[in-house]
Design goal:
membrane, oxidoreductase, 447 residues, single chain, alpha/beta
Amino acid sequence: MEGDKKYITGEELKQHNKEGDLWISIQGKVYNVSDWAHEHPGGDVALLNLAGQDVTDAFIAYHPGTAWQYLDKFFTGYYLKDFKVSETSKDYRRLASEFAKLGLFEKKGHITMYALASIALMFCVVLYGVLCCQSVWAHLGSALVLGFLWIQSAYIGHDSGHYQVMKSRGYNKFAQFVAGNSLTGISIAWWKWTHNAHHLACNSLDYDPDLQHIPVFAVNSTFFNSIKSCFYGRYLDFDPVARFFVSYQHWTFYPVMCVARVNLYLQTFLLLFSKRKFPDRALNILGILIFWTWFPLLVSCLPNWPERVMFVLASFAVTAIQHVQFCLNHFAADVYTGPPKGNDWFEKQTGGTLDISCSSWMDWFYGGLQFQLEHHLFPRMPRGQLRRVSPLVQDLCKKHNLSYRSLSFWEANVWTIRRLRNVALQARDLSNPVPKNMLWEAVNTHG
């Protein structure tokens, strides 16, 4: 009965926004997920970032229809009194429903099998080039192939983390274990931890870990205030060292990308051997041990140290293509501070992302992530469907007067370097202030 319903206001819901007291609302019904947060497959950070809010759009984006049946056990008995849905959200939910009816979230095609086959083939080429060839050029070519193998493996890990690429959850986890941990040396657990936070808090300077690269990079002058990272739980100190690096970041961007993989290995070890709770710790550690067994052994088979160093640096440098791509999707987009809000999901995703335009035959190269906005709006959608839904997303953006930015790879690089340069010049002004108006300064010097 409608008269028997119990209500709380949005302000009252906001009070339950911390660990141990974590409530959310979905379609106006209030749920208490305090005790379950650590068991959440997407991690507790995803829930904490949106705690005390209506999270309907984010729930729809990340969960299949079968997930709704599990909500009842968390229902508090309360409904949200001032629950409202914006016109943008209504259209987004309608579009998501249409895609579900068309089966677009289930039609994966054969992309995963093709990708796995290509990875296996590249791995064989690498082994042959290192073990069976004596030419330094063959060794260099093997290193380049290994770099491309890592790129494609990362796409498989990414896809399997967002949706089930294989026929069962067990096979899906196996794909993550092989393509993520064992072949690339990067923990899928670390990736899930950071990537889910990135999706939900897309381009929030203090909540999105994918923008928090102090002391090396800063995409906005807000970082000059040594803001606190709500993801890492510490302050991002903008000290003289950070100021120096940021002042030249538009020059160091590409060189740093060539060795960015080292940071991913470091982040993996920091998480795996931390006290933080996360699922499948032993499996992740096993996968990393496998990587750090076969990769050093492979490198040791090269005839001398100069070739070994060349092999490692060349393979790392190839993966810079992927690291650059990830930066292009977000570095030059809109940013904000504070936690994400559940009632402007669509708007925040459009503001914080850039698409990369390319021909369909290049989709394999970008792993589907050239459709970054489409992926952020529908993260469970297989990459093979993103090009198909892109025109509908564009129409929705146009209808609600929201940004839809699709740039060529070159243009996206120009935008990114321009953003980094603008912030670098601001950092230089802070470290070595100069008069803005020399005539005014000269006059005031003499009174």
